[in-house]
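Handout, section 4.2: multi-component inputs.
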Amino acid sequence: MENKRGLWTSNYGFLMAAVGSAVGLGNIWGFPYKMGANGGFAFLLVYLVLIIFVGFIVMLGELALGRKTGKGAVGTYVALSKKFKWIGWMGLLSAFLIMSFYSVLGGYCIKYMFVNIGNLFGGHAGTGADIFTALITNQGASILFTFVFMLITCVIVMGGISGGIEKFSAVAMPVLFVMLIVVIIRSLTLDGAVEGLKFMFVPNFAPFKENFLGVLSTAGGQMFFSLSLGMGCMITYGSYLSKKESLEKNAIIIPIADTIVAILAGLAVIPAAYALGGTDAALAGPKLLFITLQNVFDAMGAIGPFFGFLFYLLVIIAAVTSAISLVEVIATFFLDRAEAKGRKGNRKTITIIASVGIMILASIVAADGLGATGMWQPLGFCWLEFMDLWSEGIMMPIGALLMSLFIGYELGIDKFGEEIEIGGNKFKSKSFFSLCIKIIVPIAMLFILLGQLQSFGIINIL
Ligand code: TRP
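Output:
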């Protein structure tokens, strides 16, 4: 009989959920800038090569392990290997840590959506910098918007795999795409947009000559976060995929879709930031999203707040479809554990408890306001950076490194391949996969780990 845990109802639904997980804040505020600052079109080529040799491989690895065991991040490793069991626990912990700041940023976007609605009806909320400073230093408001974001996320995950996540993503992702196109048209038709296009796309080999390793590890780290790899998200989503579907096909489509959206996000934000953001416009991170772009919408005149509203709504959708995948990692863990004990876990209760746990952790990050409120900060990092350091900087690269060693040397390629070949599918990339998972991915992951530590200022060797 079919899997009792529930399944995606169609491959399309699965794809929208998985692409939804991948497409998030990382695409919008990380990729366009990193591409521009690290060689433009040349960076894109490096990024694509990394996707083929590392991204596709780890994606296929995670999806297949999850579907093989029919379990989430922790359950999968518990079922397969005593030695590697704790990779799953790192993944679970990463889900809490990433959500602790992702939900705060999602909450800020909700605030900005309302700011633009207010402006649309004749209000004027001040410059991007004014609004942002007021928001991050207002602890009550920051926590409140974080909770609103979590509430939306929680309700969708409570609905289950097909009834909640798939239903939402199947509609939200196409809508997001259309909204993105509308914003791109506005952005590209502004006077001065061409400079932004040049920043993003003109090939520039200078960064390659100066610091090729730095460019490589930047591209690798970005790819990893953007594809939701390294902490069991794709293991979890794979565990709900029907045995009929081709894993190889899905592992190719998800990275391609994610990269296309990242480039489109660049077309939406960078030309506009160049055209209207002013000379000191920040092109990356929270400042891009919450200061530069708000100023851009202000400078567009009467119609500006409409595009502002559309844009922040689009970012909220992208963030929600990513957040649900992270919360699902936690929900699936508890559901699997109940099942292992012979009970049927209650998804609704579990999701609420997981969300409350995240809200508690996120309250610290929200109250800290990127370090603006003068709270005590660990190791000199603001709380957001601290949570990001442990998850994205340390545990995720280690998790993916160990996963590749596990598949390559403990489980073995033949055993792994059985899952790919189920239902008459051929493992077309078998020898390529074998080479990559045994040698290329471990080296790349080690390297990405070092690059991450360097970017957090922990080491200085690359
Ligand atoms: N990929 C998402 C983004 O680009 C974030 C995300 C969702 C994520 N799930 C993840 C990152 C799992 C790492 C691991 O914003």
